[in-house]
């Protein structure tokens, strides 16, 4: 049986019409950057819970989740309506293998995110470990519109701090906007344009790729990478591709 921590909303940030982030105060929770927890609310005398990746680092005092408000959803409309001081439940254990301790020692770490799949990568990138381990980190982040590219200030800060070590490549699929690529990640990956933008090649010898977000992107990108000789990472058979599907 799952056990739960009592949580209290500290902040509810609305990025745009249907995109939110919650900061939550709980008792201390041990986790590794890249993992997720279950977050729940009492609705009609029943605890309804869903998994959400943690945006914060393990050193932060508050938990943070990033989510879409799905109008027909059972839980997300209620989460979107929470205000400071409201109560909710958080599982007392984190799960998931989208973590750096699953990544072998290679020079280049590629992170592909769509939508709210950016959450676990924020937790990873705001730790010192990746910057000590990898020669180059390339974050590829796609959203439907520019306003849905959340946490842009965080990436500007990382770029200013790590400069040549960090490449940030934003994609917007339903608008043409300055300083973004109007394409899908998988289209750019298949054509070779993504690697041209990064000025770096993806290879089985030098790269590890972490994929998080839309299930179609994750599946299609995995297939394209497998065609080039990369394979899914498993405990029993180490590979170059780690995935987390959201929707």
Structure in words:
The structure is a single chain. The chain has 247 residues and is an alpha/beta fold. It folds into 2 domains: 4-91, Elongation Factor Tu (Ef-tu), domain 3; 100-245, Nucleotide-binding domain of ferredoxin-NADP reductase (FNR) module (Rossmann fold, 3-Layer(aba) Sandwich). It has 7 helices and 11 strands. The strands form 2 sheets. The protein has a 6-stranded antiparallel β-sheet. The relative contact order is 0.15.
Search tags:
247 residues; alpha/beta; Elongation Factor Tu (Ef-tu), domain 3; Rossmann fold; six-stranded antiparallel beta sheet; five-stranded parallel beta sheet; 7 helices; globular
How is this structure best summarized?
The chain is 22% helix and 33% strand. With 247 residues, it is α/β, with parallel strands linked by helices.
